Structures are given as C-alpha cells and as structure tokens.
Amino acid sequence: MADSPVNDWIAAANDDPVLRSLRQCREQLWINPKRSAFERVKQQLPLSFSDIEDASARLERFAGYFSVAFPETAARDGIIESELVRVDKAAKLIAEFLHSDVPDNLLIKCDSHLPISGSIKARGGIYEVLLYAEQLALEHGLLQLGDDYSCFASEPFRQLFAQHSIAVGSTGNLGLSIGIISAKLGFKVTVHMSADAREWKKALLRSKGVNVVEHPSDYSVAVAQGRQEALNTPGCHFIDDEDSTSLFLGYSVAALRLKRQLAEQNIPVDAEHPLIVYLPCGVGGGPGGIAFGLKHVFGDAVHCFFAEPTHSPCMLLGMHSRLHNDISVQDIGLDNRTCADGLAVGRASAFVGQVMEPLLDGIYTLSDERMYALVTLLTDSEKLAVEPSATAGLPGFAWLMNSNQETLEVLGLASSLHNATHIAWATGGNMVPVDEMAKYYALGVEALKQFKF
Ligand SMILES: *Cc1c(COP(=O)(O)O)cnc(C)c1O
After folding, report:
1. So where are the chain's domains?
2. Which residues carry this modification: N6-(pyridoxal phosphate)lysine (predicted)?
3. Which of 236, 271, 290, 347 has its CA 20 to 30 A from that of 169?
4. Are the folds of 5-49+68-117+248-450 and 120-244 the same?
C-alpha cells in the first residue's frame, strides 16, 4: 500500500485499544483528550455567538411565513421547535437494561417530532434553504429586511424561486427536510439519495414534486455525485452536508431555545448542576451545531457527547486519529452498514470534527441491536415512537454512571454527576409510517432476547 497519512496512522496505531474496539465493532466510550475550558478556546473558534444570534433572528423573521405555509407550526407562532420531556419511566427501564443506576433527571428532546419533516433536519436543513431564499429575494428587490415574511408564500416569490434550483445528497432525512421546504417555496429541487434511504422517504418526496435521484452507493458517493451535478447546473444551489456552516448555524439555534425550555421547567444548569447532552452523530453538522450552541450558552456547565453506530463511527475515528475527514470507516475495514440510516455515514464532515476538538467531552458507540432494543423500551415505557438512529442518545447516562472515578475526574463530573440533568436528543421518527415503526418494534423485541436483561 502506498504511503499516506491514513496508512501511516493505521500502522502506528496497531496496538491502540480504541482502534481495536472500532474494528471489532465493540461498543465503547471514548473520552476526548483535547477538551478544554470553554473560555480559553472561545476566541479561536471559526464562528461566534453573534453568528448563532443572526441565525436565530432569521428564523424569527420567517415565523410569519411558516404560520401561513405550514399551519402545523402556528401553535408555536411559526417557530419550528420540539418539546423537552421528562421520561422517568424510560429512565428506570433503560437503566435496568444497561445495568446502571437510575438517573434522577433524564429528559428527551423530541426533535423526532419537529414539525414539517419529523427530524433534527428541520433545523439545519430548512435554515439553509431560508437563508438562500432570503438572499435571492433581497437581490431581486422583492424584499426589505423589515417586511412581513408571509410574502414568501406569494406568487412573485414563487415565480422567482421557480427559476432557481436546489440540490442535496442525503441518507434520507436531510433530503426530506430540504425537499419539502424547497418545493413549498417553489424551487426546483433534486435530492440525491444513498442506497440505504428508505422507500417511503423517496415516495413522499416524489409526491411533493421533488426530483429524487437514487444512487446504488453510500452517503458520501451520493453527496459527491449530487455536488458534481449541481456544479454543472447553472443557478443551482448545492446544500453540502459535508461542509456547510449555514447548516451548522441553523442547528446551533436549538441551544437558545433549550435554554428557555430549561428555565421554564426550573431546571438549573451550573457547575454543581451540570447539563449532559447526548447527540446522535452522522456527518456531524447536527450534533456539532447544537453542541457548539450549547457551549456558548452554558460554557463548562454543559457536557456534550456524540453517539454513533458501531458500524459507522466516522466522527470517533476522525477525531481520535485527528485525520478528520481524511479517514473513513472503510479505511479500517468497517462496512458502514447500520439500521440507523440517519447515522450511516463513513466519513465525517470536513470541519465539524476540528471545531469540536476543544468542545466535545466524548463519543460512544452502540450496536444496531442496542438501538432496536431501545426503540422497543422507549415505546413500552413512554409511548414515544422514534426511529433507531434517534435512540442513540439514550445509553449516554449509563456510560457515565458506570464510569470509574478517574474518568469522571477527567470530565469534571466526579462530584456533580449525581445532580446532573441528562438530555438524550431524539433526532427523528415522527414521519416513519406506522407499519415501518411496527417492524422496528418487532426487531427490538427480538434484539432484547440477546441481552442479559
Ligand atoms: C441526520 C441525522 C442525525 C445526525 O445529524 P448529522 O448532521 O448527520 O450528524 C441524527 N439522527 C437522525 C435521525 C438524522 O436524520
């Protein structure tokens, strides 16, 4: 094999226990050795708090449009937001399943039930389309910043957008969110789907007039081909999930909203009462954007962990090797096949891993069987139906509660873990057809038999 940074690292890491566990698809918790005090690193970050505020203000400007165009958002005055719910029954059942103590405060952030597209992608994906639409409308003199944005539902806007196109590559959920909002605004929109994308997602998009292109390959190839085709199409805006700061900022706004929800529920967040957030990670933009926002809002009182499938641990591999998007899970012999289609990503985002280097506490992995089992346990305990990907945040508390004192010292949680509020970010599920969900549940019943529980 030719010399390359990837081969060099793999050769040098031969005895590395983290790499060994990755290769064996063993579930593990990786602690990020580069995590730093937030105040020390804040100035060096490529994006700042004012960027988050700018994104938040843009979403507020569009609230008038959403109330009109998507009546399901009217209850929140056109703000796309999800509930934050305490799940005491799930805490008990999942703790038993994972052989851990029961956490006092386990909450689920229900992005699985976000309006419009039923996944976390209703944050970043929709945001980037709005940013583009706003720029076009300003450039063409149809809009002034102070206007009532319900005008985006009017004919002159639709005519303008009909002359422009949007393209995206996706494992499914990003395509759903971009497709739905783009088609509603009147854009021509093409979604490049990877082989693991579900049939129902393609059918739903086609029913809305979206051009769906199927690729017999994985996510990275679908994105690359979509990017190439978009480059060859004049007037086409490509939404680049592997390298987009606007997607990232769209996600980050969740932190401002979460701050308000925690305050409304009288949940303290400070050094004695840490907030620990567990985020399912695919390419990294969603969890990265949210974690980035949370660090700006709560500083060192918040601890963020990503969760990845054992077959697609691209962020763990990229951050641990420090090769980021130069290395893929296929490079270490993994197949990138997982039931967690939202997380079936073999190569991490070009920039998220580097931004997260000083901010992230760690990453853990979990098996497909674990995710199926959690789908079933969450349904049984809370009647909350989510897709397998969206359960990945649930085992996070148990990794910490089962950690030794030394690990907790490193994380600064040794004396405060018992006061922590744990939030598992549920990232998708509401649009999954009931018969598909029933299949996940049945697979979970089977999977549960494999575990000592
Ligand atoms: C996209 C997605 C994620 C992760 O977001 P990334 O930006 O790809 O890291 C997690 N869960 C679900 C259900 C998703 O669709």
Report:
1. 5-49+68-117+248-450, 120-244
2. 121
3. 290
4. yes
Q: Is residue 1 pLDDT above 60, yes or no?
A: no
Residue 2 is predicted with a pLDDT of 62
Q: Stretch 226-254: mean pLDDT, rounded?
A: 93
Q: Which amino acid is at 375?
A: V
Nearest-atom number in ligand 1 for the CA of 315 is 9
For residue 21, the CA-to-ligand 1 centroid distance in Å is 23
Task: Kindly give the distance from the C-alpha atom of residue 390 to the centroid of ligand 1, in angstroms, as a whole number.
Answer: 8
Contacts of 59 (CB under 8 A, 6+ apart): 79, 80, 127, 130, 250, 253
Q: How far apart are CA 179 and CA 191, in angstroms?
A: 7
Query: Which protein residue's CA is at the shortest distance from atom 15 of ligand 1?
Result: 342
Considering the domain 5-49+68-117+248-450, what is its CATH architecture? 3-Layer(aba) Sandwich (3.40)
Residue 280 CA to ligand 1 center (angstroms) comes to 6
Which atom of ligand 1 sits closest to the CA of residue 387?
A: 13
- Ligand 1 site, CB within 6 A: 119-121, 173, 280-287, 342-343, 387, 389-390, 427-428
Cα distance between residue 132 and residue 396, in whole Å: 36
- Kindly state the tokens that stand for 122: 């209703």
Question: How far separated are the first and last CA of the chain, in Å rounded?
Answer: 45
Tens of pLDDT along 265-298?
999 999 999 999 999 999 999 999 999 999 999 9
Q: Which amino acid residue places its CA nearest to atom 12 of ligand 1?
A: 342
Q: Which of 278, 336, 391, 427 to mutate to test the pocket of ligand 1 (most atoms within 8 A of CB)?
A: 427
Q: Which residue puts its alpha carbon closest to atom 5 of ligand 1?
A: 286
- Answer CATH for 120-244 from 1.10.8.100, 3.40.640.10, 3.40.50.880, 3.40.50.1100: 3.40.50.1100
For residue 88, report the distance from its CA to the centre of ligand 1, in Å.
Answer: 25
Instruction: Look at the pTM and tell me if it is higher than 0.85.
Output: yes
What's the whole-number mean pLDDT along residues 170-190? 94
* pLDDT in the model for residue 55: 98
